[in-house]
Q: What sequence folds into this?
């Protein structure tokens, strides 16, 4: 069965099932969403207007048995950055869509009636538009429950909460994971785009699916084995991440002086111990949670976890370093349990836990919150935000807009998106990624922390300028390609250090589709994706002045290394020389 | 006495008096502020950070006896548009600064101590930095009173209210006018820049000033006579404006189908009669106000007025069409007295009456206010806004940010600045000015309404595309030059129709400085100014995608003419071919 394009028009509630155009055949995930957005969306359109499109595309290897291949990409013009956005997610949607033969789901238009929300129900060669007044105003877990009650079988669920209905920049599209918890198409306000199209949730029925077709099953199996071994033998993906999750990074970044603290006023925090991965793992063990847990079927890294409170009650899962950092060091909460409770709340609300938490950090400068006042912050998030009070709307607009509203100068954003977890002044390669990424400040788009701090793929001194632009460029190119395979970004660690890993990945793609790609082809794919995205952004109104870190990082000295951001504009712009 | 540059550094509270560099000698007003900002301000700097500069420069003819020459320019990087800004104002500051020999006042840096506000007191070769805790939290008229009590003589006063102290985008810099009322450096949030530099007010002591030097007094007198006559004999500047103020335009635009109504949903309003210039003039006559009143010494047009309530108590002055339109047709208030009361309040608060009122129009779409609910809007402006409540901050951020916060699509802004009073779909030449102006949507930067609607300088059909780009270009070039002379923009009407007007203006400049400029030189000055500003904007991060009207105007048909905005990007970009 050939894959097909499912195209939905929300203006007249119609759909078409289309053959995949030849030029899209070899694309998946980010390569496909970014290509479709670039080809079909007017870069000058309003991101929340009828001419934006929301595109979902599973990765090339999604739906297969390849380890860690269960990522689904979502793309659109972002209301947060004003540029192109791709956000990929674990959960069950990539696998189910792939097995149903959905190469991409393209959602266009906007209903004339603003008062109705729909569930899109996707089945074989069909999309139903179901009015769901009973789901309006519900948060994510309630939607999952309602859908579970409605279908007596396994369906993929992508949903938005109230914040998405209200089209706020913080809104994610949340996806049901294999454990019945939530994963997020985070960053960039894709949930607001879904809300603007009056879609409360999308369900994909898995009943009649088949396994995806593998052109050369033997070759696939062999390559898959090599690839899995590489993942398991790498010290980061095979040991560090399973043991402590991504939160292994708190102590590492703190020691490196790259843990942004008090809204990016220092690079280390005296209370790091309270919130670090080691503390988290101890709590989980003592309280009967799970230290390892996969965000999608086939994950062999299992960096997720289930974190319970002292009484053994569920607080959150997918408890990531970046969220813990933002609520901890940057906003000042010293109590990991409260951070977990807020993380769980953000899952349920369907808001980006990085953007939300970085916004809280800035809200301290605005005088809205006291540093570390987690109780008041919890109230803001649980009451004001989902009810859309004036203050809820302010927080819901994200860091950049909060800075505008309060006339603040120390606003940690690039292209309007909050800077995550790694101080660019002290981890300069990451700073180059933040400045140049087509996605706005996005750690996942070129994780130079790997080579600056973790010595993965060699070492480039994080405090020096030398080599950072090349490092960030190479990583962003590779990441764009990996984001197209359906692979989790953490395959980068073995890919950087184990010479067998990347060839095995390419072999799996070739075996799946019966093609003969080389590693160079994959690198070129990454380059093409970045250029496509960059060109879209320029047409959308961004230019090189947007490839910059916040100005205050140029003149404000960051302890403990007492460094500033010292790249010239010209040096940064050299990123695009490829 | 040669003119001098007064340069103030707020970081260390110091000042320097400098010779005027040769390249600035022939510049004044907008030409000078934009040149200084372009030369000295990093386009990538944060507008509210220490590297922005606030520049005041009187026009070339300010301080002379030339009619209508009393305009003062203020320039900076704008926190509202992110680009360069020049805003000129009547009042007493241009004359007093000129007579004191201040070619430009350049304010740099930012105090380390955020808790202190200063009065800058400018006298001959001296600037004093006076801590003014007693003025903090006061609105404009209270500041004027305090300054009047402090100095037993006439001083120029430029001040900000609470909204400026809080660095909101709506904040003006307000200037005392000859009648003791206020004129505004409006649009673009220059009051926020002044607030960011912790300057509550600037006073210029006029005690020891001399008349400005005129190189050839006889020639000046003669040219001045011709110029004044041209102003007085033009039907618009000599009759329409003195009789009804700028508010003569309500009926004219309503009949032309170009009066934006209900947040730009139609081009005419059934209640135009309630708020039109004729109604206003009747009220003024019946209540003992003033139909004519000059915003600065030497004005022969006298388009300002004093508008009283039914009991003869002062409500407002400088009661402009754009404000009346925005609160009337666009937001829905049918009671001209309430509009006047709100206009007076906005003067006192020091907020831009166009941006504020266009924001209220959008607030209806956001569900914050009901259409036409002036009482609630008054409460918002009088209580929430100056007290900086969450809702006050939202309104105080202006139209563009309000649209972001509420996820709205029908947001009438260009480059983040609210579109004034003339429907671009029905007055297409004005639409081209809005799209291309370096200032964001700004009617004064190239008033194509003149030729589209008022048949001044010929006629170009407002509903057709033909000729609009050339019209807007010529007007913007001429306006940039006029904004440099210190002349009020309304000299454009005789300049467009009376062949003696423009030569007389150039003769006055030549007589003042003993130079030999031609009309071509003046046109070239206008071109240079626009190019300087455009280049700054590009370096600041704007590009041709920012030279666009809001997308909804492309697909939403505007009654009564049932027109859309139908210019392609390419057609608009041809504006810059000069």
A:
């Amino acid at each position: 069965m050939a894959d097909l394009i499912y195209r939905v028009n929300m203006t007249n509630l119609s759909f078409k099932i289309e053959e995949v155009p030849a030029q899209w055949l070899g694309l998946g995930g980010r390569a496909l969403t970014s290509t479709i957005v670039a080809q079909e969306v007017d870069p000058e359109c309003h991101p929340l207007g009828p001419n934006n499109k929301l595109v979902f595309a599973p990765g090339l290897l999604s739906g297969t048995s390849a380890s860690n291949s269960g990522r689904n990409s979502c793309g659109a013009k972002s209301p947060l950055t004003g540029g192109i956005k791709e956000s990929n997610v674990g959960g069950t949607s990539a696998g189910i869509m792939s097995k149903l033969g959905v190469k991409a789901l393209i959602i266009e238009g906007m209903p004339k009636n603003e008062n109705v929300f729909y569930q899109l129900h996707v089945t074989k060669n069909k999309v139903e538009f179901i009015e769901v007044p009973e789901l309006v105003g519900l948060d994510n877990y309630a939607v999952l429950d309602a859908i579970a009650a409605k279908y007596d079988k396994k369906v993929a669920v992508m949903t938005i909460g109230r914040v998405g209905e209200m089209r706020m920049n913080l809104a994610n599209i949340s996806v049901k994971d294999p454990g019945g918890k939530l994963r997020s198409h985070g960053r960039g306000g894709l949930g607001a785009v879904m809300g603007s199209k009056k879609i409360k949730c999308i369900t994909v029925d898995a009943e009649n699916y088949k396994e995806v077709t593998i052109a050369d099953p033997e070759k696939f199996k062999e390559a898959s084995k090599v690839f899995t071994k590489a993942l398991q033998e790498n010290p980061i993906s095979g040991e560090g991440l399973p043991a402590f999750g991504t939160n292994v990074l708190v102590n590492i970044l703190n020691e490196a002086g790259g843990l942004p603290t008090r809204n990016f006023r220092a690079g280390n925090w005296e209370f790091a111990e309270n919130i670090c991965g080691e503390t988290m793992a101890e709590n989980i063990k003592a309280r009967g949670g799970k230290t390892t847990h996969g965000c999608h079927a086939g994950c062999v890294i299992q960096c997720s976890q289930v974190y319970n409170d002292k009484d053994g009650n569920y607080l959150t899962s997918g408890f990531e370093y970046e969220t813990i950092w933002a609520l901890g060091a940057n906003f000042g909460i010293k109590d990991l349990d409260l951070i977990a409770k807020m993380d769980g709340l953000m899952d349920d609300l369907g808001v980006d836990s990085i953007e939300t938490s970085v916004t809280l950090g800035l809200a301290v400068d605005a005088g809205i919150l006291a540093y570390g006042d987690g109780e008041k912050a919890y109230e803001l998030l649980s009451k004001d935000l989902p009810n859309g009070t004036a203050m809820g709307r302010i927080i819901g607009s994200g860091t950049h807009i909060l800075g505008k509203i309060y006339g603040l100068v120390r606003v940690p954003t690039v292209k309007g998106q909050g800077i995550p977890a790694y101080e660019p002044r002290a981890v300069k390669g990451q700073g180059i990624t933040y400045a140049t990424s087509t996605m706005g400040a996005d750690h996942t788009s070129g994780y130079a922390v790997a080579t600056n701090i973790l010595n993965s793929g060699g070492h480039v001194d994080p405090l020096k300028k030398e080599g950072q632009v090349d490092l960030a460029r190479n990583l962003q190119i590779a990441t764009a390609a990996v984001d197209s395979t359906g692979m989790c970004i953490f395959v980068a660690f073995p890919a950087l250090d184990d010479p067998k890993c990347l060839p095995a990945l390419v072999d799996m793609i070739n075996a799946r589709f019966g093609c003969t790609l080389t590693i160079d082809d994959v690198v070129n794919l990454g380059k093409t994706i970045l250029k496509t995205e960059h060109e879209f952004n320029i047409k959308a109104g961004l230019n090189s002045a947007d490839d910059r870190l916040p100005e205050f990082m140029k003149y404000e000295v960051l302890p403990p290394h007492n460094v500033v951001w010292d790249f010239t504009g010209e040096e940064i712009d050299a990123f695009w020389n490829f």
Observations:
- Chain A has 24 helices and 17 strands.
- The longest strand of chain A covers residues 102-108.
- The interface with chain B takes residues 43-46, 48-51, 79, 166-169, 192, 195-196, 389-391, 393-394, 396-397, 401, 404-409, 411, 538-543, 545-546, 548, 550-552, 555, 569 of chain A (CB under 8 Å).
